[in-house]
From TrEMBL:
The keyword DNA-binding does not apply. GO terms for biological process: tricarboxylic acid cycle. The keyword Cytoplasm does not apply. It comes from the Bacteria. It comes from Alsobacter soli. Residues 1-30, 265-291 are annotated as: Disordered. Keywords: Tricarboxylic acid cycle. The lineage of its organism: Bacteria, Pseudomonadati, Pseudomonadota, Alphaproteobacteria, Hyphomicrobiales. SUPFAM superfamilies: Succinyl-CoA synthetase domains (SSF52210). Residues 34-150 form the Succinyl-CoA synthetase-like flavodoxin domain. This is Succinyl-CoA synthetase-like flavodoxin domain-containing protein. InterPro entries: Succ_CoA_lig_flav_dom (IPR032875), Succinyl-CoA_synth-like (IPR016102).
Length: 291
C-alpha cells in the first residue's frame, strides 16, 4: 500500500463483509486504496460465514509461523464460544487479534443483519468478550490500520511507558494528550537523563517527556541520537518520534532521513522499540512509509 513494502509480510486480515473492507485495505501496486503500507500476508473476505467462520480462519492463520498479528473486520459472531477458543489460542501463541467492529449502533446492527445475516448483538457483550480474551478493539479504520501495522512491526511487547520526541511544542502537547487518552504513561526524565539531554540541546532547550528538541535540531542526527538514547535507556518501554515530512516530488528529505536514523540508532543501543508517527499521515511519502 502506497508502494512496495520491503521485507517479510506478517499481517493477516479477515473481513466479515464483502469487498469494501478488503478493497480499502488491499495490498496492490496499482489498486491500493490506502496509503499506510501494511505488510499483508493474507487477506480473506468471508462474507456471511456460510461454511467457515471467523474462528476457523484464526486457527488457519495460526498454523503459519510467519503471521504475527490477525486483523478482523467483524459484523457479528455466529459462534461466540468458538471465537473465544480461537482468540485464546492466538493469545497463547503470542499473536494479537485486532478487531474493528461494525454494527455498533442500532441502525448499524440492523444493517449487519440485512447484509450478512449477522447478529451484531449488544456492544457491551463484545467489549466484555474482547477484554476477556485479550482482543485489541479499534474504533475507526485508520486506528485499525495503524494498530495492525504497529503490532506487525513491533510484535506484542508489554509496557505502557512511552517517551516521545518532536521539534514542535504543539506536536509535543498533542503527543502528550493522545498518549494519556490511550492509557499510556509518560515518565519524566531523571536528573541524570535531564543533564545528558541538556548537553545536546540549544541553550534555551527544556527537557521533558514528550521532548521538544526545537527546530534548530532539525536533521541533527548524532546529537538527537544521543538525546534519544539518554531518555530511552531508563524507564521507557517504547519510543515515538513525531515528524511531518515537507512536501516534495519524491523520496525522503535528507533532514528527515537523519531524524529517522536517530531513533533507529537509539533503539539499537537501548533495545527499546521505536516508531515514527505524523500529525498528518498524508505528509509521509511512500519511501518514508516503507521504512
Amino acid at each position: 500500500m502506497g508502494g512496495d513494502l520491503p521485507g517479510a509480510r506478517h499481517l493477516t486480515l479477515h473481513a466479515h463483509a464483502g469487498p469494501r473492507p478488503t478493497g480499502r485495505l488491499r495490498w496492490g501496486r496499482r489498486r491500493a486504496q490506502s496509503q499506510r503500507s501494511l505488510p499483508w500476508r493474507y487477506i480473506v473476505s468471508a462474507g456471511n460465514q456460510a461454511v467457515l467462520g471467523i474462528e476457523d480462519y484464526i486457527h488457519g492463520f495460526l498454523a503459519d509461523p510467519e503471521v504475527k498479528v490477525i486483523g478482523v473486520f467483524l459484523e457479528g459472531l455466529r459462534d461466540a464460544p468458538a471465537f473465544h477458543e480461537a482468540a485464546l489460542a492466538a493469545a497463547e501463541r503470542g499473536v494479537p487479534v485486532v478487531v474493528l467492529k461494525g454494527g455498533v449502533t442500532a441502525v448499524g446492527a440492523r444493517l449487519a443483519m440485512s447484509h450478512t445475516s449477522s447478529l451484531a448483538g449488544a456492544d457491551a457483550f463484545y467489549d466484555a468478550l474482547f477484554r476477556r480474551v485479550g482482543v485489541i478493539r479499534c474504533a475507526t479504520l485508520p486506528e485499525f490500520e495503524e494498530t495492525l501495522k504497529l503490532v506487525a512491526v513491533w510484535g506484542a511487547k508489554p509496557g505502557r511507558r512511552l517517551v516521545a520526541f518532536s521539534s514542535s511544542g504543539g506536536d509535543s502537547r498533542m503527543a502528550a494528550d493522545f498518549a494519556t487518552q490511550a492509557g499510556l504513561e509518560l515518565p519524566q526524565p531523571t536528573a541524570e537523563q535531564t543533564a545528558a539531554v541538556l548537553s545536546e540541546l540549544p541553550p534555551y532547550g527544556q527537557v521533558s517527556n514528550p521532548l521538544d528538541f526545537t527546530a534548530v535540531m532539525w536533521g541533527a542526527r548524532e546529537p538527537l541520537a544521543r538525546a534519544f538514547t539518554a531518555l530511552m535507556r531508563e524507564g521507557a518501554d517504547k519510543a515515538v518520534l513525531v515528524v511531518d515530512h515537507p512536501q516534495q516530488a519524491e523520496g525522503v528529505s535528507p533532514a528527515v532521513e537523519a531524524m529517522i536514523q536517530a531513533p533507529e540508532q537509539a533503539s539499537e543501543t537501548t533495545g527499546v522499540p521505536g516508531a515514527v508517527s505524523s500529525v498528518n499521515p498524508e505528509s509521509i511519502p511512500p519511501a518514508m512509509r516503507a521504512r
